[in-house]
Amino acid sequence: MEWQTHMLSGVVAGYMITGGDWKGGLIGGIAGILPDLDEPKSKFGKILIPVSLPLNQLVGHRTLTHSLLFAIATGLTLALFFNMNVGLAFAAGVLAHAVGDMLTGRVKLFYPFKLSVGMKVSPFVFFVNDRICRVAMMLMLLFFGWKDFTDYFLSLAN
Fold first, then answer.
1. Nearest to 102 by CA among 86, 139, 110, 80
2. DSSP 3-state of 118
3. Torsion-angle region of residue 90: left (phi > 0), alpha (psi -120 to 50) or beta?
4. How far apart (Å, rounded) are the C-alpha atoms in residues 24 and 26?
5. Is 82 within the bounds of a domain?
6. Residue 42 belongs to a domain
7. What is the pLDDT of residues 116-148, one digit of tens each?
């Protein structure tokens, strides 16, 4: 998936798992693009090349940072340092990223085991899957977030 779709899926996952908390959506959105840190050509990878390049050389792309192990470890760590909602939102964003990549390719979800999970797809199917998911995520945000958004602005008016 492309980074915009990963970010949107992370926002939706973080928002939903924290019971409609927009801070959870923000954390999930960041976590939704973070797993591609293992790819030096990705949005985060270009910014953090001193981390991205060695990580890619050590474990490769779509391995450690796309795994259940990474989602659980980072989620638990953040929950210890902040609170459970932060940890849950982050883990949900990472998992949303992994699921998105499984719709457009294969990931080592059970890293360090070698099993790859997902679908091998053509570039055209990749594009179509990405766009369908992106529109679905935007619609979910509108559907689930609209009430919270309007309630917030109505409370400001009172």
1. 110
2. strand
3. alpha
4. 5
5. yes
6. yes
7. 999 999 999 999 999 999 999 898 888 877 766
The predicted model scores a pTM of 0.89
Q: What are the structure tokens assigned to 40, written together? A: 């030096």
67 backbone φψ class: left, alpha, beta (φ>0; ψ -120 to 50): beta
DSSP, res 40 = T
Number of domains, the chain: 1
Q: Hey, what long-range contacts does 109-118 have (CB within 8 A, 24 or more apart)?
A: 109/66, 109/67, 109/68, 110/67, 110/68, 110/69, 111/59, 111/63, 111/64, 111/66, 111/67, 111/68, 111/69, 111/70, 112/64, 112/69
Report CA 48 to chain centroid distance, whole Å.
17
Range of 44's domain?
Answer: 3-153
Q: Which helix (H) or strand (E) holds 10?
A: helix 3-17
